[in-house]
Amino acid sequence: MNTDSYDTIIIGAGLSGLTAARVLKSAGRKVKILESSDAPGGRVRTDKFKGFLLDRGFQVLLTAYPEAKRFLDYQELNLRSFNPGSIILGNSGIDEIRDPLRDPSSFFRTLKSPVGSLEDKIKMLMLRLKLSFASIDEIFLKPEFTTLEYLINRGFSEKMIANFFIPFMSGIYLERNLETSSRMFEFLFKMFSESDTAVPAQGMGMISNQLASKFSQDELILNEAVMNIDGMELISQSGKTYQAASILIATAADSIPMPFQRPEVNKKSVICLYFSADQAPYQKALIALNANINKLVNNIAVMSNVSSDYAPEGKSLISVSIIAEDPFKDDDSLITKVKSELMFWYPDCINWEHLKTYPIPYALPQNKNVSDDFSLANYRINDTLFICGDHLLNGSIHAAMKSGRLAAEAILSK
Asked: Rounded to an integer, what distance in angstroms lies between the CA atom of residue 310 and that of residue 33?
């Protein structure tokens, strides 16, 4: 039997596992990361396809995330930012809503926008100011409501909720009823308001690559799925056995190895389609939100408007996100439905070339009950086995990295 021994073995090279490994290695621990796929990153990866950069699902980095600022080198990532605001696709045409505090030139246009009333816009500005004075700890200690209940209680009109908050937050929450915790809403609204919404110039996968760059090929093993955990031993799909003083499970909640796997995992799914076009449907670095009630497409983003590296010269890359309970079996049918819906606003979409479709069964945890902190004991399953992941806190890049850090601190404190 081929057996290797380490201080800590980490199962999974997503953001949680890589962050935990960084903390442990910095403390002088001998670590080994076992990743079942062919590259690190978990859900945060970027594929190169026909000269395009395709993130595995539309994702952004909120640069105000405390854990991201703690572990990532933003300058090295060469971040490219979206403009503050959104394009609203409604049944009467196309409109825009901008953030006048960050884009003063949009003040009068935003006031005149039919997306919501003047009172709604004043309430939004007041909410932003209120959250700027609230700490993240304070936000996550508040009572929890659904986001929809929260917005109604804050006095926003049905029109503003339907035209802006539902399409905007649906793309983040991956659910249309805004059942996600009000704590999550306040946290994300604060993060969006305080800094940039960005992507690395070379794709979101550069975040994972930067974290993984700290490890040698001996420390990060790819294509090595863990099949079973038996005490202080791991058995991989290749038949190799690993031993460690501590084991950290850093997989998605639906991929935890035996015998600790969960019988049922509440999760949210998304389908992301990528299209190439000779001409972008719009020229601004904005996300377009579909405000129609009976819709298939939730939002679109022209990624090459944000970073020209996403597409070859002379081409535009368009990301289309769909929140779907059940994945479509027929990709051609889905493409036809998407183009049929978008033709109302962008008639030239009939000429878009489909590049690739990404069905993502596990994109986020449910986020109905969320927190931003646990005692270190919550990351311990037993004396030698630990766990981390955004499913323990909340569905965000910040939470994934924070859970990894805290799990590593739990291992160091044992």
From this structure: 30
**Which residues, in sequence order, are CB contacts of 86 under 8 Å at separation 6+?**
96, 97, 164, 168, 286, 287, 288, 289
User: CA-CA distance, 408 to 191, in Å (whole number)?
Assistant: 25
Question: Tell me: the pLDDT tens digits for 121-173?
Answer: 889 889 999 999 999 999 999 999 999 999 999 999 999 999 889 988 999 99
| pLDDT tens digits for range 206-244 | 999 999 999 999 999 999 999 999 888 999 988 899 999
The pair of three-digit structure tokens given for residue 170, joined into one six-digit string: 């649906």
Asked whether the beta carbons of 42 and 389 are under 8 A apart, the reply is no
CA angle 143, 145, 151 (to 5 degrees): 115
β-pairing, 316-322 vs 267-277, is antiparallel
Q: What gap in Å lies between CA 388 and CA 224, rounded to an integer?
A: 19
- 233, 237, 260, 253: which is closest to 32 by C-alpha? 233
What pTM does this model have?
0.93
Instruction: List helix spans (H) across 195-258.
Output: 205-212
